[in-house]
Specification:
Blueprint: E1 5-12, H1 20-36, E2 41-43, H2 61-77, E3 84-93, E4 96-105, E5 108-114, E6 120-121, E7 124-125, E8 139-143, E9 146-150, E10 155-158, E11 164-169, H3 179-185, E12 190-195, H4 203-217, E13 221-226, E14 242-246, E15 249-253, E16 262-269, H5 270-278, H6 281-286, E17 293-296, H7 323-345, E18 350-353, H8 358-374, E19 381-385, H9 393-406, E20 409-412, H10 416-426, H11 435-456, E21 459-462, H12 466-471, E22 484-485, H13 492-503, H14 512-520, H15 540-544, H16 547-560, H17 564-574, H18 581-597, H19 599-602, H20 631-639
Parallel strand pairs: 1-2, 2-3, 10-17, 11-12, 12-13, 18-19, 18-21, 19-20, 21-22
Antiparallel strand pairs: 1-16, 3-4, 4-5, 6-7, 8-9, 10-11, 13-14, 14-15
Helix pairs in contact: 1-2, 7-8, 8-13, 9-14, 10-11, 13-14, 16-18, 17-18, 18-20
């Protein structure tokens, strides 16, 4: 394991039923291939040494003896490699014949896991040949030169670097209470399933749903390897399903119905799974009473780690085929939160500051949708433009056009005169464009919004977003404050998609051109004067860094608690060809510094709806001391 990642492989070898010599040779090829690809654990199908469909041949002493010889051959083959192999074979334990998975590494047989649930219906009659682990008393056996005790006691195997995995076999996962429930509750990070499941119409879809749910419910990695082409015989066909899941998400899968051997590899993020578990109180409570014996694996040689799994550069953005539904759900959450506040306060008017930028545009569209849904007149929405020293014609015109076309009430109140007077009152040189110059404008705008709200019996709707809250890119008691912040749970990168989605709907067809221009306008607080051509000069991303990077950092730091070195690794993979390592390091360091320094602003945030899995509400998901030191994080950033 490196950076929390474990490379696993699900193998579908070529098979000749009852030909153990051929089968073992084919398994060796895939073990060598997996080892060359850096896999740390490889899982083979059920009864892979003999083949699953031997039927009454499992009663033949010769086949059982050759299966043990095949295991010996594999033990010898693995002496010079670190990879852990999980292979299937029939094993005699006293008077019982068991369908087992053998765990082997570096020439040693580490343990045997017997199948618990035996199908005995349709074309499967395993109880004709095998006994269940439930029928097994602890039994001493001697297998492949190794003395060991076989029992029904659940086993967890622990690698040299602390990764824990358990094994179940085929039908076990289909049971109402699979063995993997107990294994994961007892600490297994990963479950391996040696399977031989035949193909039927609709069965594959059900299987994928089953494995996704099991890995999600147990917050685990799940590696599934099922028999393929060579196993198909008589009345049943096997499609060769190799599937790897992580907490409900499919990481990798094989080609179904391939006539060739296959090796499916993936990297499971065990660190991510453990973070999910220890922050999930339901999972913690469910662990009570779960027990398993621990089997230690062999030490391994250090190896170079290369991240091979793909990393989404925009983790907050829904997948394309889910975009419309996700956008509607987000908008409904925002609308429902704001509607509850209005109904509770018996208020039918809101005030929104409209700048012509992304955040205020989204807040306004949410208000319009909510008023329509409540059956209120849109004139109850008062949009106020407050041009100042840095306001450009482009943003001003977009703001006015949007308000006019939506049919809301609108006012324009220039802040120039009031702020100039304020500079005189406090003795500030207006030619000095420093933080006082900028923040005075933001606070004047908030004062106007609050006072007009009092004047009209309305609530001020805040526009600041999740990304700005993370970076502290808000003026304390300026745009930082409102009576309800509808965008507080939405990152900047997602806001663009939400506005674009609404621009493409029939509901806002009249505003489409304006909305698309707002999306394409550089992000800016417009607190310093424009250039000589009237263009925006103060660009936020030039000052604090690209929002797509900061949203990426925010997601992995808050969602999973990853340290800077791991976030750096993921970011380099996600943004290959877009940002170099020095650029990522620079803005990651900036993010860590600003995130810690600006917590005091988040400690007194107004209410706002939680939308996704990451929230900075001081009353909910994120409770952090305002004066915590950033030294540990910055020092690690410096070493990157």
């Amino acid at each position: 394991m490196k950076h929390g990642f474990v490379t696993v492989a699900a193998a579908i070898p070529a098979v000749k039923v009852a030909d153990t010599t051929y089968n073992v040779a084919e398994m060796e090829k895939l073990i060598a291939q997996a080892d060359g690809e850096g896999a740390e654990i490889i899982c083979f199908p059920e009864l892979s040494i003999t083949g699953y469909t031997c039927q009454d041949l499992f009663k033949e002493q010769l086949l059982l003896a050759k299966a043990e010889e095949g295991l010996l051959t594999l033990l010898d083959f693995t002496r010079q490699t670190d990879i852990i192999c999980v292979v299937g074979l029939p094993v005699l334990a006293g008077d019982l014949l068991l369908n087992c998975a053998a765990v082997i590494q570096r020439g040693a047989l580490l343990g045997l896991v017997a199948k618990t649930y035996l199908p005995n219906y349709n074309e499967f009659y395993e109880k004709r040949w095998f006994a269940s682990a439930q029928d097994l008393n602890p039994t001493d056996i001697y297998l492949a030169g190794t003395p060991l005790t076989v029992s029904a006691t659940p086993q967890i195997f622990r690698t040299a670097d602390g990764v824990k995995f358990g094994v179940e076999i085929c039908e076990d996962v289909w049971a109402p209470i699979p063995p993997s429930n107990n294994l994961t509750m007892a600490g297994a990070d990963i479950v391996l399933n040696c399977s031989a499941s035949n193909e039927l119409i609709g069965k594959h879809q059900y299987l994928c749903s089953l494995l996704a749910q099991q890995s999600a419910r147990t917050i685990s990695g799940y590696v599934y390897a099922s028999s393929g082409f060579g196993e198909s015989t008589q009345d049943v066909v096997y499609g060769g399903n190799a599937l790897v899941y992580e907490n409900g998400h499919l990481l990798a899968e094989s080609e179904r119905f391939s006539f060739q051997p296959q090796l499916t590899t993936a990297q499971i993020d065990v660190e991510r799974l453990r973070t999910e578990r220890h922050t999930n109180s339901t999972f913690v409570n469910a662990q009570r009473g779960a027990v398993a014996s621990m089997v230690e694996c062999k030490p391994v040689q250090p190896h170079n780690f290369i991240l091979t799994r793909s990393v989404n550069p925009h983790p907050f953005i829904p997948e394309d085929d889910k975009m419309a539904n996700a956008c509607e759900e987000i908008l409904n959450i925002q609308m429902a939160g704001l509607a509850k506040r209005l109904v509770h306060t018996n208020c039918q008017r809101v005030v929104v500051g409209i700048s012509g930028g992304l955040d205020s545009t989204l807040a306004l569209l949410v208000c319009v949708r909510m008023f329509d849904k409540l059956g209120l007149e849109r004139t109850g929405i008062l949009g106020i433009t407050m041009p100042g020293f840095g306001t450009t014609d482009r943003t001003h015109d977009n703001a006015v056009s949007l308000m006019r076309s939506l049919g809301i009430s609108q006012r324009e109140i220039s802040i120039a005169k009031a702020v100039t007077q304020h500079f005189e009152d406090i003795g500030h040189n207006s030619a000095k464009h420093d933080v006082t110059y900028e923040n005075s404008q933001a606070r004047e705008r908030t004062q106007i919004l609050m006072d007009v709200a009092n004047q009209t019996g309305a609530l001020v709707v805040g526009t600041g977003d999740l990304s700005e809250l993370a970076l502290g890119w808000a003026t304390y008691n300026g745009d930082h404050m409102s009576m309800y912040g509808v965008n507080a749970g939405i990152p900047k990168t997602l806001i663009q998609y939400l506005i674009r989605y609404m621009a493409e709907t029939a509901e806002f067809v009249q505003q489409r051109a304006t909305l698309l221009d707002i999306i394409n306008t550089p992000i800016s607080p417009e607190l310093t004067p424009a250039d000589s051509q009237g263009n925006i000069q103060q660009k936020t991303e030039d000052l604090v860094g690209p929002y797509e990077l900061h949203d990426f950092f925010l997601y992995y730091m808050l969602r999973y608690g990853f340290r800077p070195s791991k976030i750096m690794l993921l970011a380099q993979a996600a943004f290959t060809g877009r940002y170099d390592a020095d650029t990522i390091k620079k803005w990651l360091t900036t993010f860590c510094r600003r995130f810690f320094n600006q917590q005091f602003k988040r400690s007194c945030l107004p209410d706002g709806p939680k939308v996704g899995s990451v929230s900075l509400s001081p009353r909910g998901d994120w409770r952090m001391p305002s004066d915590a030191s950033y030294n540990l994080w910055i020092k690690e950033c410096e070493k990157l």
